[in-house]
Predict the 3D structure of the following.
Amino acid sequence: MDMNCRAAEGMVTRYINHTLSIKELEEFLEHVQSCSSCYEELETYFIVHEAILQLNEEEESAVLDLQHLLEQDLKKSRRYIRKKKLEHVLTAVLFLILIAVLMALLTLVIQELGRFL
Ligand SMILES: [Zn+2]
C-alpha cells in the first residue's frame, strides 16, 4: 500500500481542504512523513492556504508560525485517524457483546419454554 509521489501530490489540495477519506489520509500522512519532497510540496500549499485565510480574516496582529501550524495540523490528522480506527474497533466489540447478550437471552427463553412443553 505504498503510495507514489504523483498520487501524493494529487492529494495535497484535498488534504488541505479536508476531503480525503480516512484510508487516503492515512496513506498520505504515511507518505509525506517519509518523503521530504512531498512534505515540502504540502508545506508550500499549506502556507499559501493559511496565508490567504489570514488575509481574509484581516488579523493584522496574528503573526503565526505557519510551519509549526502544519505540524499541528498533521498531528491532528493522525489523532483523527486513530480516533476513527478506535471507533471502528469499539463498534465491532459492542456488536459482538450485543450478539452474546442476545444469544444468552435466547438460551434462557428456550430453557423456560422447555419447562412448559
Ligand atoms: Zn513523495
Remarks:
- The helical segments are 5-16, 22-34, 36-57, 66-116.
- The radius of gyration is 24 Å.
- The longest helix spans residues 66-116.
